[in-house]
Design goal:
- The complex is a heterodimer of chains A (219) and B (251).
- Chain A is built from 8 helices and no strands.
- In chain A, helix 4 crosses helix 6.
- Chain A is flat and about 75 Å long.
- Chain B starts with a strand and ends with a helix.
- Classes of the chains: A mainly alpha (219), B alpha/beta (251).
- The interface between A and B is medium-sized, with 20 and 26 residues.
- The structure holds adenosine-5'-diphosphate and magnesium ion.
- The site of adenosine-5'-diphosphate has 11 residues of chain B, from strand 2 and helix 1.
Chain lengths: 219, 251
């Protein structure tokens, strides 16, 4: 690799990392947090068998899981304006990623809740707790531990999926790489470089996951 | 203080309880014995509403309830006056021994934390588990877990404690410590309804023994009568089979 390319990569590193830190990471964290709340609600109405809401939850999961993420992005950002709903690119991306995470994570959480032995719930009733107390204090904490590794997986997946937001004009990390590549014609170098930064982000998250899992080992 | 009459329960086409009557007076230790599959667990679960009986009534502290028409409120109120010890302990896995014991006080009965903690430690002391208060269930042996479960049952000072084969899941060498704790509870005058296969225990500790077979009470009476001079052929056969099973251990 010649001197010039090497220099370019060094110069562009900050130009990539900055949108990574300013857009990619916040987009991921905000979407994922909202997604978890949606997932928890979606899982709970199904487990608690609340009529009406349960059907809505199933429908929502069915639609989101059955359609491509990029199509959802296009529907919200380019399609909704036709109905008079105009959203900026960033909030559009947050909405789509949150609902996407919500659908997949709700299945993870639901399975984890159902994996808690029924004896735990019966014991809760027998010491006098009610359904909500049992859920909040016994079932969900145990389920969250089971769900933690697959949820970490979803989070890591989301870091990479945010690159799709480039298609709806969000100036995130991948979009920045595309721009610099277009200007300098050093396509290979720049796309490899941005790949390495994604890898870096995901490696940090993986380490964090390992650390958290160790800390949860006490029960 | 607790009486049930005519409990009936089916699972699909299988009739599991065919009109069971049972009476437990204050301070009584009643044991229920009988072959596997005779409906003993189902009986206890119906009495504590973990299963819904199709027919029958319950009289608890002179109040009469229809078992097939219980409201959620009635069930919640009755459960706060009882406690249940499960065959497989069912300790809350995400709670320490002490938290397991105090959960019912703090959450369900709104007892202040410090007060609950003291009561919890006293209960653990009573079952000889105070030194393991901060251990999680998976760090304890089966016998220790069951003793914590018993502490969880007594800490709320229930009017009656139900036991469903509390020693059946234990390794033989751990059975003694749990039976010892239960014997102490009996001598304190606690009211207990115990399903068990421990015939020695039933004989020595109970003041009333109920023999169940095929979803019905076949015979009941004081332990001397049931074990010494059973009237029913089925009781005799059952005791015979148990004795044969226990004989090698006695040698
Ligand atoms: N949840 C259930 N669904 C279907 N059948 C059950 C269920 N629980 C118990 N049974 C059946 O009811 C009968 C009585 O069971 P159980 O009360 O556990 O007897 P015991 O405790 O005396 O061994 C058995 O034939 C058992 O297979
Ligand atoms: Mg049983």
């Amino acid at each position: 690799m010649d001197e010039r390319v090497w220099q370019l990569m060094q110069d562009s590193f900050w130009q990539l990392l900055l949108p990574g830190l300013r857009i990619t990471i916040p987009l991921t964290l905000i979407s994922f947090s909202l997604g978890l709340i949606i997932a928890l609600l979606t899982a709970m109405v199904q487990v608690a068998n609340i009529r009406g809401l349960k059907q809505i939850a199933r429908f929502y999961v069915w639609v989101i899981r059955g359609t491509p993420l990029i199509v959802q992005l296009f529907v919200v950002f380019f399609g909704l304006p036709d109905l008079g709903i105009v959203l900026d690119a960033f909030p559009s991306a947050v909405i789509v990623f949150a609902f996407n995470t919500g659908a997949y994570a709700s299945e993870t959480i639901r399975a984890a809740i159902e994996a808690v032995p029924s004896g735990q719930i019966e014991a809760g009733y027998c010491v006098g707790m009610n359904y909500v107390q049992i859920m909040a204090r016994i079932v969900l904490p145990q389920a969250m531990r089971t769900a933690f590794p697959p949820l970490s997986n979803s989070l890591i997946g989301l870091v990479k999926d945010t690159s799709l937001a480039a298609n709806i004009t969000v100036m995130e990390m991948f979009m920045s790489a595309q721009r610099i590549a277009a200007r300098t014609y050093e396509t290979f170098a720049l796309y490899c470089e941005v790949a390495v930064i994604y890898l870096l982000f995901c490696t940090v998250l993986t380490k964090l996951q390992t650390y958290c899992e160790k800390r949860m080992k006490n029960y | 203080m607790l009486e049930v009459k005519g409990i009936e329960k089916s699972f699909d086409d299988l009739k599991v309880l065919r009109g069971v009557n049972l009476k437990v007076g204050r301070g009584d230790v009643v044991t229920v014995i009988g072959p596997s599959g005779s409906g003993k667990t189902t009986l206890l679960r119906c009495i504590n509403f973990l299963e819904r009986a199709e027919a029958g009534e319950m009289i608890f502290d002179d109040v009469r309830y229809r078992l097939d028409a219980m409201t959620r409120k009635e069930i919640a109120a009755l459960r706060k006056k009882t406690a249940f010890v499960f065959q497989n302990y069912n300790l809350f896995r995400n709670k320490t021994a002490l938290q397991n014991v105090t959960e019912g006080l703090v959450v369900a009965r709104k007892v202040p934390k410090s007060e609950a903690r003291e009561a919890g430690l006293r209960a653990l002391q009573k079952v000889g588990m105070a030194d393991r208060a901060d251990a999680y269930p998976h760090q304890l042996s089966g016998g220790q877990q069951q003793r914590v479960a018993i502490a969880r049952a007594i800490v709320t000072e229930p009017e009656v404690i139900f036991f469903d084969e509390p020693t059946s899941a234990l390794d033989p060498e751990l059975v003694g410590e749990v039976l010892g704790v239960m014997r102490n509870l009996a001598s304190e005058g606690r009211t207990m309804l115990i399903v068990t296969h421990e015939m020695q225990f039933a004989r020595n500790v109970a003041n009333h023994v109920v023999f169940m077979d095929d979803g019905a009470v076949v015979e009941e009476g004081p332990p001397e009568e049931i074990f010494g001079a059973p009237r029913e052929e089925r009781t005799r056969k059952f005791l015979q089979s148990i004795m044969n099973r226990e004989a090698p251990a006695a040698l």
